[in-house]
Amino acid sequence: MKLKRLAAVLLAGTMLFGATATVSAEEKAADEITIWAWDEAFNIKAANVAKEMYAETNPDVEVNVVTMAQDDIVAKLNTSLASGSYEGLPDIVLIEDYRIQGYLNAYPDEFAVLSDIASPDEFAEYKTGVNQVDGKMYGIPFDSGVAAVFYRTDYIEEAGYTAEDMQDLTWDKYIEIGQAVQEKTGKYMLTLDPSDLGQIRMMLQSAGAWYTDAEGNVTIKDNQALKDAINTYKKIVDSGISKQVADWDQFVGAFNSGEVASVPTGCWISPSVLGAEDQSGKWAVAPFPRMAENEASVNASSIGGAGWYVLKNVGHEDAAKAFLKDTFASNVDLMNQLAVDINLVSTLKASSEAENYNKGVEFYGGQEIFKDFAEWTNEVPAVNYGEDTYAIEDIMTEVVQAIVGGADVDETLEMYQTQIEGAVAN
Amino acid sequence: MTKKVLRTFQYIFLSICAFVSIFPFFWMIIAATNKSVDVTKGTLMPGSYFMENLKAVLSSDLQYTTAFKNSLIISVVTTILAMIVSSAAGYAFVIYRSKSRERVFNIILLSMMVPFAALMVPLFRLFSKFNSVPLLKTIALNTPGAVIVIGISTAFLIFFFRQNTESFPKELIEAARIDGVGELGIFFKIFMPTMKSTYAAAIIVTFMNSWNNYLWPLIALQSPERRTLPLVISAMGSSYTPDYGMMMTAVVLATVPTALIFFLMQKQFVAGMTGSVKG
């Protein structure tokens, strides 16, 4: 029977694939560590540069760097940790600051304590609030998400303002400038994406507040900072200086094509701004605006950012810790290199001494942006993001839209307090 | 007169539908020929950057070609095995009588109601144990076998083949039996060739499902050199500064095999429509 033979060959074939696969899995050497991260142009490149530097002094350790989408990393960590199966898990994994508390609380025995290879006071204060549990440090802070206003100097000048006016901004002043820009140049001041509460999040952190308090309890009702942030957001929308966008693609497109005069967001947007080479020299960076009506609010905030964590049950805990110790936990040369390679703003305090941090960037009119970013990073108020930032925001987008649409702030926040409490209790 | 108005509306409606379904493909091809910056600026004109994008895709650390090969192996093997196993099951459910036949079939249908997300963790635990069993190593985690085995017998395919076997003329089987053809022979030599159109439809569906399958490969395949295309494309898209040109080039290449399968099978699909029982 011809078909029988065909089937047999196929089955044998699949077995062969399987056999080669298991062999390669068994070959894994003792001193081989795997790192997971998600951005080829950013954190993956950082891991690769670190790997090269580490290889100079430790040629016998093999480091594998694997790119995986952030959501995929989350999905894989969840299934593997939930089922207690460590096969194929990495030794070092990059986890976003907003998510890490959830992991540390749900799987306290899976992550290695890193207090013996680094100390919190070597890093920007706000970064170490999230990676500690009971005074033990579990992560090595990586990138700064320090917030800033990237702005078009030509548009601002045309509107009759100077770089001086952009310093020490309040949101009221920002809106005033925005209206002048719109009048004189016909451009919008910024883009807003109704499905992304990044602006609110940054305003909250500028006042040292969050959707939750220090103990992780949901504080939507009577949260003065949240109220101020939503009111500020509404003011921006009502003033008509914002262009509405629906996704990341349009957000980047708006400033690449010169439709908006400023981009108030994390410093990691810089590579995207640099993408429009024809706008070189027309950009500058200013500190993030504060909310004048909130006394706690300062001209510094953060959005995003991540840290390196070691999974201790995968089998190479010591090798992984040794690697981090010599690279991301201490190496200023590495940070100096990464400033050029990937525009990394490091949260390692010592890196502000690095040579490249004190060089002007031509695209930003010669401004020493790294020095500025590093300085502002140290001023960001520390906030414990808790476990449920994303779950809360799923509901908060509705809340914010309702309030922008005219609903009463106090009433709406009070109404949603219980609903959000219920949503995160699961 | 009213007929004409109705016509016009029909055409307008259909044109809108056509536009909505074709535009994403158009955009994909346009984006693949442009620089990332131009894509975000919203250009709708074909650019001249395709070769650079292609080079970026092929030289990426993500091992695009390896992933392409993996996807191809998994999808082809899954489709072939699924055609044999699932169609045999569907065939047997109609042709052979047994008391518990309906009950077994209902259980299979019930399994369609359980969402895959609920099965994920138990399946993962099960497959992670296979590595210690010599014979099952071939389908353990991190092997193509783990992905293939999940795809070869699905409730949907069995259901699909059972429904279509109902219309298969039983007289053919009886005639063959009288002529002394064995049961396997009837299935392979008579049933399979006559049901070409059914197989063509099933091949298209199975191949596409397998080619686009995301969740299970994501969890089952761990090392980078084992990953399939959807995983690699997803990894490309997660950058803070995504290279849209390169990503869309990767997507264009990934669409080619499914399109090919579809057009190849379409011919069979039509050929199979001609009748089997002749006077």
TrEMBL record, chain A:
Residues 1-25 form the signal peptide. It comes from the Bacteria. Keywords: Signal. InterPro entries: Bact_solute-bd_prot1 (IPR050490), SBP (IPR006059). This is Lactose/L-arabinose transport system substrate-binding protein. The lineage of its organism: Bacteria, Bacillati, Bacillota, Clostridia, Lachnospirales.
From TrEMBL, chain B:
Keywords: Cell membrane, Membrane, Transmembrane, Transmembrane helix, Transport. Pfam families: BPD_transp_1. Residues 68-265 form the ABC transmembrane type-1 domain. Gene3D superfamilies: MetI-like. Signal peptide: none annotated. Belongs to the binding-protein-dependent transport system permease family. This is Lactose/L-arabinose transport system permease protein. The lineage of its organism: Bacteria, Bacillati, Bacillota, Clostridia, Lachnospirales.
